[in-house]
Amino acid sequence: MNPPFRNRRSLTNLGGAIETEGDAEDTAKLAEALAVRSSLDDEDAARSHVHGFHTYPARMHPDTAARLVRSFVPDGGTVLDPFCGSGTVLIEALVAEVRPFGVDLNPLAVMLTKCKTRLRSTEELQTLIATATVCANYANERRKARAGASRRYSAEDVQLFEPHVLLELDSLRTKISEITDNALWLDLALVLSSLLVKFSKKSSDTSGEMVARKTMPGFPSKMFVRKAEDLVQRLMALGKLVTNPQPVFVDQDDATKLKTLPSVKMDAIVTSPPYAATYDYVAHHMLRLRWLGLDASSLKSGELGSRSTYERVDPRKAADTWSHELARFFRAAKTVLAPGGKLVMLMADSALGTIALRAEEIVAQTARDCGLYPAARASQPRPHFHGPSRDAFRDRPRFEHAILLRN
Ligand SMILES: C[S@@+](CC[C@H](N)C(=O)[O-])C[C@H]1O[C@@H](n2cnc3c(N)ncnc32)[C@H](O)[C@@H]1O
Fold first, then answer.
1. pLDDT higher for 11 or 187?
2. Which of 100, 205, 285, 362 is deepest in the core (most CB within 10 A)?
3. Where in the chain is the domain with CATH 3.40.50.150?
């Protein structure tokens, strides 16, 4: 196989040596975007302004998103994130005053991105806190009156929550469902969502581990108001950063189809698609999707790279399967990219069994087959946490790559 890129180099940098290939100017920009401390080490940056409102698995570091947008989107241009997740790229696009477009198949991601990218008036922010307080008061009154649940809960929910927590969350959920203003409903449903896993016995979205909880009665309602106040602070902080607000487009769509986008050509796509065989967004978000009444059927049938799908794939055929999935995305991307437009993607190597899926090789080959030119990449070693596939990275470490493809 041809080397995927030309001009191999290696730079010493924060978080390990960065290997680069391709055009020197582009690789320097990609390397700069990769060389941020991980959000695990650098909680403050990852939580800065509205980014930190709600957790989301595998979100892009905001500094990486900001650097990629500033380096690869022309002034006043358009940028699409077709796997927008919690909206990191769109938020940084707003700050950089370029026009953001985002889609995702996960309805929770669409809600989060809409919430985090909509700048509000002071009046709207006041209403948000006042309505959160009304919901919390309602939950407190029902708690004191020892009122029962408003619906029958599944055995799963009964297992996941302490009984009094389940009742208090149920009251918050009931009051939120009475809100008729869609935007306000969306904000407060997400405030509730941001607390769900914290008050459940799940240790995180992505782990099956259960932890013991001992929650004071009334604490969920108190946290609900605090979280609404926190969202308001964060939106105000974002408002100060965005001096020239651009219209934002966000919708639910499949990145391998891109049917909902308005007919605007994108100067750049900046994105982090799922990594093959790594996450399961349906499973990770089932609790939140269920409580928010969101329809997961499109995500179930169209999620790219999900670990549960790859568990059924012969590891020797996994690279071909992944290439096939990526090709569907690249072909759709080509239909919306402007001539000469750039597709910048972050992707880490992954593994199935003992077989490593080297993202830079699979991406470069597949991109070429789809008429996109692999122009540059920067790659930095990353730890691999998945025990059963550790041997896949015995000879060569796992890398995260920032890759530039040109249309
Ligand atoms: C790595 S995450 C993106 C995280 C995002 N960059 C952020 O900062 O929050 C990958 C996203 O791809 C979405 N996804 C998976 N398959 C998809 C598909 N076929 N079309 C659109 N989105 C998809 C998942 O729902 C998830 O939000």
1. 187
2. 100
3. 9-112+244-406
Q: Which tokens hold the place of 270?
A: 């900046």
Per the confidence metrics, is the pTM higher than 0.70? yes
pLDDT computed for residue 138 by the predictor? 98
The C-alpha atoms of residue 319 and residue 351 are separated, in whole angstroms, by 10
For residues 117 and 53, is the Cβ–Cβ distance under 8 A? no
Summarize pLDDT for 215-225 with one digit per residue, the tens: 999 999 999 99
Backbone φ and ψ of 337, nearest 5°: -80, 140
Q: What are phi and psi of 100, to 5 degrees?
A: -95, 140
Is the minimum distance from the CB of 326 to ligand 1 under 6 angstroms? no
| pLDDT score of 41 | 44
pLDDT in tens, 72-87: 999 999 999 999 999 9
Q: Give the distance (Å) from ligand 1 centre to CA of residue 147.
A: 40
Domain spanning 9-112+244-406: CATH superfamily: Vaccinia Virus protein VP39 (3.40.50.150)
Whole-angstrom distance, CA of residue 320 vs CA of residue 317? 5
Average pLDDT taken over every residue of the chain? 93
pLDDT of residue 385: 79
Pairing of strands 398-406, 249-252: unpaired
C-alpha 11/C-alpha 9 separation (Å) is 7
Q: Which letter does DSSP use for residue 140 in this model?
A: H
Distance (Å) from CA 175 to ligand 1 centroid: 30
pLDDT-derived band at 48, boundaries 50, 70, 90 = confident
Distance CA 237, CA 226 (A): 16
Both tokens of residue 384? 């691999």
CA of 83 to the centre of ligand 1 (A): 4
Closest CA to 381 of 56, 68, 60, 34: 34
Cα–Cα distance between 84 and 112 in angstroms, integer?
10
- pLDDT for position 23: 93
Residues in the chain: 407
Distance of CA 307 to the CA centre of its chain: 16
122-125 long-range CB contacts below 8 Å, 24 or more apart? Answer: 124/183, 125/232, 125/235, 125/236
Residue 56: CB within 6 Å of ligand 1?
Answer: yes
The mean-pLDDT minimum among 2-6, 111-115, 224-228, 314-318 falls in 2-6
